[in-house]
Specification:
Low-confidence stretches: 8-14
Structural class: alpha+beta
Order of helices and strands: HHHEEEEEEEHEEE
Radius of gyration: 38 Å
Shape: elongated
Largest sheet: 5 strands, antiparallel
Length: about 220
């Protein structure tokens, strides 16, 4: 008598599904897409086209967004600033009271500076845009300093840059010649000597249509 060591489980098999004569084999049902190389060949021309379209108008878009708050409109004959300068009695030293005005005539800035030099200097920057851009040409006053005929002498205390000084829009147009179709940059200066103590001398700073400035000396009250 033989002893059975174990019992094997029954093995069930199922019949394979019947396939019709028109059904292709299982492996043939997988559809292969186009190769990756065929999919990618058009990407580089598309990227190049986007670059060609976007790159020239990017500076224009930045200028359109950011130039408005920084620059005042150019208006011939407009008073843009007033300077009251008084010699302190010390050689080549003066006290300068600077007032800047908005286009509506309201005071936008007022400060008293101590400068060295025999003259004070006021500098503005001008952005002049091409008519097709739709951008308004403008100016902003960016510097007050003393001048001794050879070099500028900044205020003895760090008062910060007027109106933020030179900005990215001005620098971009100035440093890239290919942007000349968008606009042009320029900066202009006016100089004048301080008046004697105690009255000093007061000057109105008037703007010309091209952004240059001129001084108009006022009579100080006696």
């Amino acid at each position: 008598m033989t002893r059975r060591r174990g019992m094997s489980l029954p093995l069930f098999t199922y019949p394979a599904p019947r396939s019709s004569g028109n059904t292709p084999p299982l492996l043939s049902r997988h559809k292969r897409g186009p190769s990756k190389g065929k999919l990618r060949w058009w990407r580089w021309p598309l990227i190049g086209l986007i670059f060609i379209l976007v790159f020239p108008v990017l500076p224009y878009g930045l200028l359109r967004i950011g130039e408005g708050p920084l620059y005042q409109p150019l208006r011939a004959g407009m008073r843009v600033a007033q300077v009251h300068a008084t010699a302190t009695g010390t050689l080549n030293s003066m006290q300068v009271e600077l007032t800047l005005y908005h286009p509506d005539g309201k005071t936008g800035y007022h400060h008293v500076y101590l400068l060295e030099g025999d003259r004070w200097l006021l500098r503005d920057e001008v952005l002049t845009y091409a008519g097709w851009t739709g951008l308004q040409s403008g100016y902003k006053i960016v510097q007050l300093a003393g001048y001794d005929g050879k070099q500028l002498r900044l205020p003895t205390k760090d008062e910060g840059s007027l109106n933020g000084g030179e900005d990215v829009f001005f620098d971009f147009l100035r440093d890239h010649a290919w942007t000349s179709s968008l606009g042009k940059t320029a900066d202009y200066r006016v100089y004048a000597r301080p008046g004697p103590r105690p009255q000093g001398t007061t000057y109105d700073i008037l703007l010309n249509g091209d952004g240059t400035m001129r001084t108009q000396q006022l009579e100080n009250p006696k």
